[in-house]
Structure to design on (389 residues):
């Protein structure tokens, strides 16, 4: 197709040939006459359109008409999706939707082609800019195409979800974490320079407190950045060999002087099983820090929180115990994202533990809570990341 022509019609990607008006009208009549199909498409919260094997729209719900400013279905039948949205890649008028060089990278076209060729649902993201809608509006959409058959005719029904807000939020989150982390790191560096200088003991004492607060600020920013990346499914593992004992010692050292540990004791079980693991050590520490913080928060002053490890088959179980008991009303909701016993907008700790362990570290999370033994949270981690029982 390097010459840009197929069947007498210009194309650089998908077939350019279109069905005739009679065939289009027949397909439209077939779908429009099905009352249940109409009710189904109108009940969909997003744009829904049905395309034939030539990628032409033969039916849609009202949501599509409202976006493109059409009053009647008959006014859009026979056009392809990019033509309805007035895609800027069609400005020359020499090509139809799916046939330009840029269409090779279009999620709408590729989703339709995949659905027809594989007979299975296909999901793509797509960035589309209109030459006319709202003076050149850009759309970020997620397109899911699913093959369907009505009578003897094969179609693809497309669900088009606007994800513009999601994409904007992701960009802003990345910029926010980048900028605020740089600022906090710069502040930490300034405090270190002051601490190294010849200043009075009182100043050094204040600088020490400021350095501690700055370190905790950086840690909280890092924790939130990890959580956001994990939820967006773009968190990358950094697997290395590490010691389970060193992991416990690092977590205990970090939290021993944390504000949350005041008037409480944190012990590492001396009978813990020790081993080398191949996993993401920083991510595992993040999980254990959350587990221990939750345990410390659940304890009154003077109580003891214990942590340790034990082998179980090909996994190392990291456990954290506190003497408290979780009420029945809390247990069933404890891993839900927005649930917390600590007040509004605090339900992230246990949720993030489960998310990071089960989605990224290949393990499992569980807990036990009773009057005799208190509450123990367990994170079962494969000795080698990717080895999942």
């Amino acid at each position: 197709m390097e010459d840009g022509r197929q069947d007498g019609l210009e194309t650089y990607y998908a077939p350019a040939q279109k069905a005739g008006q009679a065939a289009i009208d027949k397909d439209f009549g077939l779908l429009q006459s099905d009352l249940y199909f109409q009710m189904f498409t109108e009940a969909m919260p997003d744009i829904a359109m049905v395309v034939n094997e030539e990628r032409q729209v033969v039916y849609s719900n009202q949501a599509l008409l409202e976006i493109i400013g059409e009053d009647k279905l008959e006014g859009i039948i026979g056009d392809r999706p990019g033509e309805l949205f007035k895609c800027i890649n069609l400005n020359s008028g020499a090509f139809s939707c799916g046939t330009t060089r840029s269409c090779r990278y279009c999620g709408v076209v590729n989703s339709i082609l995949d659905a027809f060729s594989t007979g299975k649902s296909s999901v793509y993201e797509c960035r589309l800019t209109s030459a006319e809608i709202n003076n050149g509006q850009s759309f970020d959409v997620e397109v899911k195409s699913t093959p369907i058959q009505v009578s003897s005719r094969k179609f693809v029904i497309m669900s088009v979800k606007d994800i513009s807000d999601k994409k904007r939020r992701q960009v802003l989150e990345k910029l926010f974490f980048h900028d605020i982390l740089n600022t906090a790191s710069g502040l930490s560096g300034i405090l270190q320079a002051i601490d190294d200088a010849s200043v009075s003991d009182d100043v050094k004492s204040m600088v020490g407190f400021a350095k501690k607060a700055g370190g905790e600020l950086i840690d909280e920013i890092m924790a939130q950045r990890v959580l956001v990346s994990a939820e967006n499914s773009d968190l990358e593992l950094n697997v290395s060999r590490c010691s389970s004992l060193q992991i416990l010692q690092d977590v205990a050292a970090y939290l021993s002087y944390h504000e949350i540990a005041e008037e409480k004791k944190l012990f590492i079980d001396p009978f813990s099983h020790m081993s080398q693991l191949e996993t993401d050590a920083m991510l595992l520490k993040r999980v254990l820090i959350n587990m221990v913080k939750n345990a410390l928060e659940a304890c009154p002053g003077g109580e003891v929180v214990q942590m340790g490890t034990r082998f179980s088959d090909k996994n190392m179980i990291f456990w954290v115990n506190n003497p408290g008991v979780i009420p029945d009303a809390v247990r069933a909701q404890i891993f839900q994202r927005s649930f917390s016993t600590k007040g509004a907008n605090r339900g992230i700790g246990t949720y993030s533990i489960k998310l990071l362990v089960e989605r990224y570290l290949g393990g499992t999370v569980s807990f036990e809570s009773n009057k005799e033994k208190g509450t123990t949270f367990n994170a079962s981690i494969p000795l080698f990341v990717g080895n999942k029982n």
